[in-house]
Design goal:
By secondary structure, the chain is of the alpha/beta class. It has a single domain, classed as Alkaline Phosphatase, subunit A, CATH 3.40.720. Strand 13 and strand 14 form a beta hairpin. Helix 2 crosses helix 7. It is globular. The relative contact order is 0.21.
């Protein structure tokens, strides 16, 4: 329930507490946690292909494009008439469970602005840092106590990508579980207590901090960064105490056969971990997997390094979610920041940045499987049907998970900002 429905504003309530009505910092944290309108059972897994995946070599093959078509042949999928790259055999058999959007187009052809655009649904501007999808989901949908709302996982690769909770502040940032989940010694550093400490000792420190908060309740109570940091501390302590989240990260408890199905590589095990986290109650998991900036050796890298783990892990994730009945309440979105040029460059059989056409995958939450949306011209250079923007894709993501993309937030200085400034949900995803 939002405090905005009451005649007393949250700020006013904090002021009253500071004057002696007993609203200490833990109480402030509970008020923060009460914000938003959780939609029961709706979750998200966002897979970001940093560097920009080649659409013409994966989802949008052009066999009649002459010397631009590339080296790969196509294979049939389980949707009659639709063919994909020969190096995507696992996804080819799951197309009936997801939609492919092939007519996304924009103009942000450099990595930094392109990534922020596709990670937020808003064009990058100097005056405002927009929040990632996971931060918005963390604000709107809340996990059970002790389970992180938003988890960030690695998926392999070398391309760096930034992530940010933007104007929402640190309270809605991700629980980062870095490291290789495929490693035999994999453990989550954030779940380990400091050397020489125990949970009991940390509890005593927390109680001491609470007393300090009470003593200084009237100091800086309206500082949103301070409030957010302390909320983060509170959540971190709950996660440290949680057995459920520890179990979710225990990949060794999974059957070996299922782990093999996802693939014994970083990306595949990250996908399996994402399913386990969603099952435990996490509301959004983001997997960043790099290496897709194929200016050189595009075909060699796609064939040998990039496509095999991505194809295996993503296909296993979608199939697993479907078989467990989780796909109907979990949206899966796979995208990069842009596509790659139709023209193969002279620098070593590579493809360069190309924002004027790109492809995405959407699944779950009522999105119609086997739905191939949009077409491009004979070289995959431009959409020949209605072009959709990243804003439209973001609005579709939020719509799928039950969040109004046009809901208005306020920045620290009171500036009103919609979650997605432009764009509307793509109805074809559901029709």
């Amino acid at each position: 329930m939002s405090l905005k429905t009451h005649s007393v504003s949250r700020r006013h309530a904090l002021q009253i507490g500071a004057l002696g009505c007993g609203l200490t910092l833990p109480g402030m944290l509970r008020l923060d946690a009460a914000e938003g309108s959780p939609t029961k059972g709706r979750n998200a897994i966002v897979i970001f292909l940093t560097g920009g995946q080649s659409h013409i070599d994966t989802w949008d093959l052009k066999p009649d494009a002459g010397d631009m078509k590339g080296e790969f042949a196509s294979i049939e999928t389980n949707v009659p008439g639709y063919r994909v790259c020969e190096h995507m055999p696992y996804l080819a058999q799951q197309v009936d469970k997801f939609a492919v959007l092939r007519s996304v187009s924009h103009t942000q052809g450099a990595h930094s602005p392109g990534q922020r655009y596709l990670q937020t649904g808003n064009r990058k501007i100097p005056s405002l840092e927009y929040p990632d999808y996971g931060a918005v989901v963390a604000k709107e949908h809340h996990a059970p106590k002790g389970i992180p709302n938003y988890v960030l996982l690695p998926g392999g690769g070398s391309n760096s990508a930034t992530y940010s909770s933007g104007y929402l502040g640190v309270a809605h940032g991700p629980f980062t579980a870095l490291g290789d989940p495929n490693a035999k010694t994999y453990s989550v550093r954030a779940l380990a207590t400091p050397a020489g400490s125990t949970l009991a000792a940390l509890e005593k420190r927390k109680q001491l901090l609470s007393k300090v908060d009470t003593a200084f309740a009237g100091v800086d109570v309206q500082n949103p960064e301070l409030t957010g940091m302390n909320r983060s501390y509170e959540q971190a302590f709950e996660i440290l105490q949680s057995t459920a989240v520890r179990k979710a990260f225990e990949l060794n408890s999974e059957q070996a056969q299922l782990r093999d199905k996802y693939g014994r590589h970083s990306f595949g095990q990250s996908c399996l971990l994402a399913r386990r986290l969603v099952e435990a109650g996490t509301r959004c998991v983001s997997i960043y997997t790099g290496g897709w900036d194929t200016h050189r050796d595009n075909f060699t890298d796609l064939k040998n390094t990039l496509l095999p783990p991505w194809d295996q892990g993503l296909a296993a994730l979608i199939e697993d979610l479907s078989e467990r009945g989780l796909l109907e309440n979990t949206v899966v979105w796979c995208t990069g920041e842009f596509g790659r040029t139709p023209k193969i460059n002279d620098m070593g059989a590579g493809r360069d940045h190309w924002a004027r056409a790109m492809s995405m995958l959407f699944a779950g939450c009522g999105i119609r499987g086997g739905n191939i949306i949009g077409e491009t011209d004979k070289t995959a250079a431009e959409p020949t049907t209605d072009a959709y923007s990243p804003d439209d894709a973001a609005a579709s993501f939020y719509h799928a998970i039950g969040i109004d993309p046009h809901k208005e937030y306020h920045t620290r200085d009171g500036r009103p900002v919609m979650i997605v400034q432009n764009g509307t949900p793509i109805q074809e995803l559901w029709s």
